[in-house]
Amino acid sequence: MEYKIKVNVTVEDYKSFIFDNWMKKKISTILSICIILAAFVFFLINFLFTEGSSIPLRTITFVILFFVFLIIKLSRSVVKIYNSDSLLQEGYSLIINETAITSETDRGSFSYKVDDFKEVLFGKKVISMYVSQQKAVLIPRHCFSSKDEENEIENFIKTYYVKKEK
Fold first, then answer.
1. If you placed Cys at 82, which of 14, 62, 141, 162 could pair as Cys (CB 3.0 to 4.6 Å)?
2. Is 76:66 a contact under the CB 8 Å cutoff?
3. CA–CA separation, 41 vs 159, rounded Å?
4. What is the pLDDT of residues 102-154, one digit of tens each?
5. Residue range 135-148, pLDDT digits in tens
6. Whole-number mean pLDDT of the chain?
7. How far apart are CA 70 and CA 96, in angstroms?
């Protein structure tokens, strides 16, 4: 069996991929929670041992501004990375079969064998098929012509490309 998909990765797809990738890494999530808790404890101590009624207001304002800044900074960084990758922005075709995935663009083609894939992540908006820790073949879900095609290809990928736990 063989499937051919026209892929067009948008900046929103890329953001979803980055978010899914970040969330799958438990250490990143734990580290982020620790940083947030440390900031909270710092401001709580500051609040308890500093006089003045404006401390809670300053603390809340600082935390809100910190998160707004962080979200804007991360979003801009992801957009910058996306814009720097001209191959990612071009449309391409993926041919998926039992033995390999071939990516075809106007510039040429490249194939990954089934054994090249280290991990497959099924996100809400993007299917990410990792060939290394930093590189993945992205299949945005909006590229499928129907929900049935999406389910059929997802099951095909699960059958042939997802590594079985031993």
1. 14
2. no
3. 47
4. 999 888 899 999 999 999 999 999 999 999 887 899 999 999 999 999 999 99
5. 899 999 999 999 99
6. 84
7. 38
Closest CA to 129 of 90, 99, 157: 157
Q: How far apart are CA 164 and CA 90, in angstroms?
A: 33
Quote the tokens at residue 138.
Answer: 């992205």
pTM for the full model?
0.72
Q: Are 2 and 97 in contact (CB under 8 A)?
A: yes
Whole-Å CA distances, 6 to 10, 52, 102, 130:
13, 61, 12, 19
User: Quick check: 120 and 157 in contact, CB under 8 A?
Assistant: yes
HEC readout, the chain:
CEEEEEECCCHHHHHHHHHHHHHHCHHHHHHHHHHHHHHHHHHHHHHHHCCCCCHHHHHHHHHHHHHHHHHHHHHHHHHHHHHHCHHHHCCEEEEEECCEEEEEECCEEEEEEHHHCCEEEECCCEEEEECCCCCEEEEEHHHCCCHHHHHHHHHHHHHHCCCCCC
